[in-house]
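Let's sit down with a protein and look at its sequence and fold side by side. Which protein we use is up to you, so please pick one and set it down. Label the sequence line and the structure token line clearly, so we can match residues to local backbone shapes. Go ahead whenever you are ready, and we will take it from there:

***
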Amino acid sequence: MDAAYVFRVRFRLEPARPFVSLEPTSAETTVTLSREAPEPGTEGWLFFRNTLWRGEVADRKYGRRLAAEWLDIPERTVESVDFRELRTDTEYFDALKTAIAAELETFKADDVSDALSKYLGSSVRVTDSSERSH
């Protein structure tokens, strides 16, 4: 099983020394960040439910805090965090749907499709092993 949450993070670089400066137009950068998705049913697997809503980061401030932590940069430098997709193989996606089905009440959803739509929107990309690049 293999899955990752993919985010686009925009942040400002800040010089580490007072005698160094950056041109304002060159101080901002954007990176694509992948965060491993915990195996369904294990600790942390509800990350998507707790962080996303309709395929967007639900709480922007919290999203910036997470990105800062993941990149080990000051939170004040993170300008934005956008969720791009849950990139997953078929095996993980099937396990995720099974885990959601077992806990539909947790998702306040009528069925698995409703839960996936509520939290991930249409931002799920199921790949086979030949498409994955890590």
In short: Strands lie at 3-12, 28-36, 52-53, 56-57, 78-89, 124-127. Residues 6 and 34 are 4 Å apart (CA to CA).
